[in-house]
Every structure is written in C-alpha cells, then in structure tokens.
Write a structure and sequence with these properties.
Number of domains: 3
Number of helices: 12
CATH architecture of the largest domain: Up-down Bundle
Largest sheet: 2 strands, antiparallel
Radius of gyration: 27 Å
Number of strands: 6
CATH topology of the largest domain: Fumarase C, Chain A, domain 2
C-alpha cells in the first residue's frame, strides 16, 4: 500500500493526496495506542479486596491473611494478583474496572472509525467510492441478486456500539458505592468480560474474513486522483492561495481539468504545471 497514491478526504470532501499505506498507518497507530491504554489498566485490576472482610478493616482475619490469599490466587491463575493496599477503596469503589472499561470503550471507538472507513472505501461496486474491494463472504441480499454487503464491517460497528453501552452501565455502576461497599461489582465484571470477549472475537473475525483478502481497486483510485481539484494545493506556493482557489473553482464550474483551467487563466505553463503538480510528491513534507 505504501506506493499507492490516493486522494484524501476531510469533512467528507476531496482533500490532498496521501498513500493508502499512510491512511492505514493511522489505523495501526490507533490500535497500538489502544493496546497500550488497555495494558496500562491491568495493574489496578490485579489488586484484590480479599482480607478486607466486611468494611475494609480486616475484622476476623489474622495478620498476613490478605497477602497469603492473594499470593495463592496468583499461583493458581498465573496472574500477578496482589492484596490491595487500601481495602476501604477496594470494597467501596471499583474504579479499576471503570478505567479498564473506559480503555475498551476508547478501543471500540477506534474500531468503529476503522470499520466505517473501510466499508465506505469499499462501497459500490459501481456507484460508491469503490477504492477497496471487500471479500464476498456470503450472499448479501435476499431481494437483490449479486449484492455483496460489508458484513464484517457492520458486525464490528455493532460490537463497538455494544461495548460503548456496556461501558455506560459500568461507569454508572462504578458511581453507586454507598459508604463502605459497592454492590454493583458482579454486573460490572460481567459487562467487562462481555466487552473483552466481543472485541477479541470481532477483531479475529475482521482479520480472518476481511483484512487478509482485502484488495485494492487501483483503477478507481487513479480515477479519483486525476479528478480531484485539491491537487491545486501544490500550486499555492507558486501562484498564491487566492489564485489557486480561483483555478479550482474555475475548473469545477467549467468542467475542466486543473491543467486546462491553469492554462486558460494563464497562471502557469504546461511545463510548470507538470513539474509542480505531482501527487506522489504531495505525500510528504517539502513538496
């Protein structure tokens, strides 16, 4: 994808070029950052309230019980569980779960954006963007023969929406602690596990049934690139912003190419246009 130059889009309008690899690198960076956020929440989740007994004081336990119990649980599970340093907070609030859910919600938001972008870029096949060719996993319509729907993208968006709903419930429940105990923990844990399983399953399916077989419609990408009026941005340093805007509007109104509009307005020569307006050169600084 690193050598495939395509038109960018901002505000749902044509923008300057970038490579398909650069576009997808944004998705990778989002997911990498989300992985770090989720991982960052784990230490607090390993803190156990065990040994706090009724209200956090440790009544009716012996000294060292909490630490030994946490150590035993850690050995059984293979996870680094520890005794919470403050049992009062561990019993009365479940902020670690709220934070973990918040990280999953952020991940869900990123996945929703990525899935939406891919299904928009794969829309068509003839009357949409059509820059990407999504795999046909199953017949898409019971009434329209031959129609193929972006089912993996749709599944991902539904999962992301559901995770956001789980997070809303978890956030509310996390605020429901009354004095020395928050009784909402079972529901919070259930929702958190549901979110984890949904995201894990949907990411696996998205990879296996969409990403590995995703193809590029090079012809459509090149068509849009050639048609874009925003390539005129490369001329701004040469002729100025106002004249460049005039060229774009003139080309659009007269149904001309940018080169034809520039030549008709007399702002640059053919040689100057060909030297300056090179989409590949517009995908990095110093263009």
């Amino acid at each position: 994808f690193s050598e495939i130059v395509k038109i960018g889009r901002t505000h749902l309008q044509d923008a300057v070029p970038l490579t398909l690899g650069q576009e997808f690198s944004g998705y990778v960076a989002q997911l990498d950052a989300n992985l770090q956020r989720v991982t960052h929440t784990l230490p607090d989740l390993y803190e156990l309230a065990i040994g706090g007994t009724a209200v956090g004081t440790g009544l009716n336990t012996v000294s060292g019980f909490a630490e030994l119990a946490a150590k035993h649980i850690s050995e059984i599970t293979g996870l680094p569980f520890v005794s919470a340093p403050n049992k009062f907070a561990a019993l009365a609030a479940h902020d670690a779960i709220v934070m973990a859910s918040g990280a999953l919600k952020t991940l869900a938001g990123s996945l929703l954006k990525i899935a939406n972008d891919i299904r928009w870029l794969g829309s068509g096949p003839r009357c949409g963007f059509g820059e990407l060719i999504l795999p046909a996993n199953e017949p898409g319509s019971s009434i329209m023969p031959g129609k193929v729907n972006p089912t993996q993208c749709e599944a991902m968006t539904m999962v992301a929406t559901q995770v956001m709903g789980y997070d809303a419930a978890i956030a509310f429940a996390g605020a429901q602690g009354s004095f020395e105990l928050n009784t909402y923990k079972p529901m919070m844990v259930f929702n958190l596990i549901q979110s984890i399983n949904l995201i894990a399953d949907s990411c696996n399916n998205f990879t296996d049934f969409l990403l590995v077989d995703l193809k590029v419609n090079q012809k459509k990408i090149e068509f849009y690139l050639e048609q874009s009026l925003m390539l005129v941005t490369a001329l701004s340093p040469k002729i100025g912003y106002d004249k460049a805007a005039e060229v774009a509007h003139f080309a659009h109104e007269k149904d001309l190419t940018l080169k034809e509009a520039c030549l008709e307005l007399g702002y640059v020569s053919t040689e100057e246009f060909d030297e300056i307006v090179v989409p590949k050169n517009m995908t990095h600084p110093g263009s």
